[in-house]
Amino acid sequence: MNWINALQVAIQYMEDHLLENMTMEQIAAQAHISPFHFQRTFALLTDVTVAEYIRRRRLTLAAHELLQSDHKIIDLAFKYGYDTPESFSKAFRRQHGIAPSEARKNSNAVQSYNRLVIQVSLKGAEPMKYKIVEYPEFTLVGVEQTFSYADGEHLQGIGKMWQEAWTSGTEDRLFELNNGDIPGLLGVVVDQSEIQEKQMQYWIATTYDGEVPEGLSSFTMPASKWSVFEVEGPMPESMQLLWKRIISEWFPSNPYEHAYMPELEVYPGPNQPPQIWIPIK
Fold first, then answer.
1. 97 and 140 share a domain?
2. Shortest CA distance to 65 belongs to which of 22, 110, 15, 14?
3. Is 120 part of a structural domain of the chain?
4. What pLDDT sits at residue 197?
5. CATH code, domain with 23
6. Do 107 and 68 form a contact (C-beta atoms < 8 A)?
7. Number of structural domains, the chain?
8. DSSP strand E in the chain: where?
């Protein structure tokens, strides 16, 4: 089952169980991938987290029922997963721009988020620069932090981490230490959910062979085959667009599968385009 089909099966599962307390493990199991990789892939393709998608769909159905029935607001709150009418009204207003009571009284328009349908892009005529490389086990040194990836909380934290690495001189230090086969700086995402639920580890690192320098940590990357894509255009928009194209165009059109090891974003240095490294099998 390719990624697009797998995600579609998972979306159908969410739709079929919208009024139930689904776990991320149950949803990801429909796509036969880990909760971490499911949420990461879903967010990259849709620009919305799984939790936010479920919230939007529930509140869309709640608004429809509110306008089409005489059910009490408190009953609708409980039906759509809210513990109190107050929490339901707050979420309703955030999505629809109006309180439930006002929407019913005035029959005002509400926001409708329809069921997602993910399809393979047909823009394959646009070239994608990539190469296949194989590397034995190699070591990274750098700094790392652990973030929650629930509701996309990690995105802000990672941006702040890069800013701190720049202002503190850590970026320059890592550039100077680089003596491995991959030049420059690396951004590395490591799934930590088996250790702690909904947690990921992010590294700003460089390939390095030698004793771990003071103040830095090390991480060993297993031997793997990689598909290396070159990013073209202004950052960070071009990086995000390329991630989407890899998932929606490249994987469905090629005989490779994701090896579910850490992925790399590689920044070789000034005047050199960044790269995305995907572990494949």
1. no
2. 110
3. no
4. 66
5. 1.10.10.60
6. no
7. 2
8. 130-135, 138-148, 185-191, 199-207, 217-221, 224-230, 263-267, 275-280
3-state secondary structure of 37: helix
Tell me, yes or no, whether 118 lies in a domain.
no
Parent domain of 70:
3-106
Residue 124: pLDDT band (50, 70, 90) is very low
DSSP state of 246: I
User: What angle (nearest 5°) sits at the alpha carbon of residue 92, between those of residues 89 and 93?
Assistant: 85
* Residue 269 falls in which region: left (phi positive, over 0), alpha (psi -120 to 50) or beta: left
Strand partners, 266: 186, 275
Residues 198, 77 share a domain = no
Say yes or no to pLDDT of 239 above 80: yes
Neighbours of 55 (CB within 10 A): 19
Token pair 């393709």 is found at 45
Task: Region of 21 please: left (phi>0), alpha (psi -120 to 50) or beta.
Answer: beta
- With beta carbons less than 8 A apart as the criterion, state whether 139 and 221 touch: yes
Please check the confidence at residue 106 and state whether its pLDDT lies above 80.
no
Strand runs (DSSP E) across 149-198, as ranges? 185-191
Tell me, yes or no, if the pTM score tops 0.70: yes
Specify if 122 maps to a domain. no
pLDDT-derived band at 125 (thresholds 50, 70, 90) equals: low
